[in-house]
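FYI - complex with zinc ion, inputs then prediction.
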Amino acid sequence: MLSEEEHCPLCNAMMSEGEGVDYLTCGRCGTLARFRGGQLDALFIPGYRRRLEELERRNRELLEMIEAEGRKGELRDMRAIRSLHEERQRILSEFSFYSYFQQFLERW
Ligand SMILES: [Zn+2]
């Protein structure tokens, strides 16, 4: 039996059971999840690889922009640098959140 009332591991929306399948579907983000004994067993996340690659690319861009601004020395814009750092923190934290699910995607 599937466990009832499972939330999507990715976006936390309530997941729904499909007919004749052993996994749950998230209507919000399209993630598929299989649970075993109340524990998450396997996941399918649409566009997973692409999102990780996007995050890696954005992280590299931000690093370059931070360096470029820093090279201006006295003329550097500290507020711009701070906001780039903040965006980079968000990117890195989403990257680590996504990366955590790798083990479950491998089991799908
Ligand atoms: Zn979801």
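The chain has three helices and four strands. The pocket of zinc ion is lined by residues 8, 10-11, 13, 26, 28-29, 31 (CB under 6 Å).
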